[in-house]
Structures are given as C-alpha cells and as structure tokens.
Design goal:
The longest helix has 19 residues, at 225-243. The chain is built from 10 helices and 9 strands. The termini are far apart. The protein is of the alpha+beta class. Helices cover 35% and strands 19% of the residues. 36% of the residues are buried. A 7-stranded antiparallel β-sheet has the order 1-2-3-4-5-6-7. A two-stranded antiparallel ribbon has the order 8-9. Mean pLDDT is 90; it is low at 5-10. The chain has one domain: SMI1/KNR4-like, CATH 3.40.1580. It has helices at residues 5-18, 31-34, 41-50, 65-72, 79-86, 111-115, 165-174, 177-180, 189-193, 225-243; strands at residues 56-59, 89-92, 97-100, 122-128, 133-137, 147-151, 159-164, 200-205, 219-224.
Length: 246
C-alpha cells in the first residue's frame, strides 16, 4: 500500500535521527540515497494536481536539480524533495503562489539557493506574488518543528499555519485561496500578475502593513522578490531594535 503524507513525515523524522554521527551532527547523504525510486513523492503530487481546485503548473526540472537536492538534503520520497528534484518549481492559482524547486526560466530561484544566507531556524519553501513568504519552522518560531509559518504581505509578524509541508501543499491545491488572500488582492490582480515571473513580486506604497495601505488603492509596482524580502527583514530588525531600546 502506498504511504500517505503522515507516513512520509514520520519516516523522514526516523531517518533524520538515524543519519547522525556520534556527535549528533547530520551526515550528508549521497544523491543515490536521496532519490527514492520505490516510493517517489511525485506520484502523490500528481494525484493531488489531477484533482486540484486551484490551477497548478509543475514546471520542468532544471539541469541543476541534482545539486539542488544534494544541498537541500531531503528525500524525493517527501513532497518537498520531489518538488525540488522533479520540478523547476510549482506555480499555483495563475502564478500567485510559487513553491521553490530546481529552477526554471519562469522561476529561476531554487529551493537550496534561495535559502543561502537567509535565516537560522527556518527554511523558506514558497512565496506569493505580493511578497508573502512561507517557511518551515526549524526552531525559530517555537517547538512545533516542521510546521509551515507565513509572513504575509500585510503584516510584519509571522503566522502559524499548523500544517506541515505536504499538508500545506495539498491545502493550497484544494483550499479557498480567495478567502485566504482576501486582504491582499485587488480587482485586477489576475491581469497584473499574468506576466510576472517567479522572481518578482508586486510592491505597494503605502505598504500593506501600514495603516494607510490597501491592495486596491496603494500604488503598485513590481520589484525583485529578494529586494522585497530584504526590505521587510530590515524594517523588522529596525522595529526590534527600537523595541529593545537600541
């Protein structure tokens, strides 16, 4: 019988404990160890996509997919590993939501590359067309390790989804994204993001997290997603510094 998403998560946790040396340092797995040919996660992904309520595009994988998987150190049995190795990324709901894979001309960022130098204690896995970010909790947000947290475009605070990667990916395919994104979408959003690549996002001024900010009335432009991330991170650091009396 094919393993379900919870079986995959449990197996991943067991393998994580087993693959450490005597000092508790994780051992790097080889490509052969990471590629699961008997129970590939892509089969489950294809099942979800075939019955998805929200439009979904699996981009073809890049020639660098092996390097991406090796750096990410996640098995292709898992949903995240399968997306990293078997796709160049995943675009959902007309490209509004983007899951990081091995890179593609429409979406050149990779799962492992996007996380280089980002943060300790979390691992970024997806983002959206208005500069909202999704990350796996590796200790930065509390004790619910492996759960997805959301840093929305209209807030400077991280929010828990209470879902792991696989459950979250399935939810965005089946769930009500219109309701979820109601506060950050505007009437012509589909037309405006139609030509947006996965490496850019819509920027608003006044910012959506500001009292005067509004997705409908704020001035909109497009900027590189790394610029949006850096701006938000720096603003948050400045606010934390002021709160600490610096």
């Amino acid at each position: 019988m094919q393993a379900g998403p919870y079986d995959r998560l449990n197996q991943a946790a067991i393998e994580s404990r087993q693959n450490r040396n005597a000092r508790g340092v994780p051992l790097m797995k080889s490509l052969d160890q990471l590629i699961d040919v008997e129970d590939p996660g892509l089969a489950l992904i294809n099942e979800w996509v075939s019955s998805a309520k929200n439009p979904c595009q699996l981009l073809p994988p890049s020639a660098n997919r092996a390097e991406v998987l090796l750096k990410a150190q996640v098995s292709t049995r898992s949903t995240m590993g399968a997306i990293a190795y078997e796709t160049g990324g995943v675009l959902i709901d007309h490209g509004w939501l983007r899951f990081l894979g091995s890179g593609h001309p429409k979406f050149t960022r990779t799962l492992s590359g996007w996380n280089d130098g980002k943060a300790d204690g979390c691992y970024f896995v997806a983002d959206d067309a208005v500069g909202g970010f999704f990350a796996l909790n590796g200790g930065a947000f509390g004790t619910d390790l492996g759960k997805i947290y959301y840093w929305p475009a209209d807030s400077l605070e991280w929010e828990p989804t209470k879902l792991g990667y696989s459950d979250f990916f399935e939810w965005v395919l089946m769930g009500d994204l219109t309701e979820f994104y109601a506060s950050v979408r505007w009437s012509s959003w589909r037309e405006e993001i139609a030509s947006l690549t996965g490496d850019r996002c819509v920027s608003f001024y006044p910012f959506l997290w500001a009292k005067e900010g509004s997705a409908e009335t704020s001035r909109r432009s497009t900027i590189p997603i790394d610029e949006a991330f850096a701006l938000k991170r720096d603003l948050l650091r400045q606010m934390d510094g002021k709160a600490g009396g610096n």
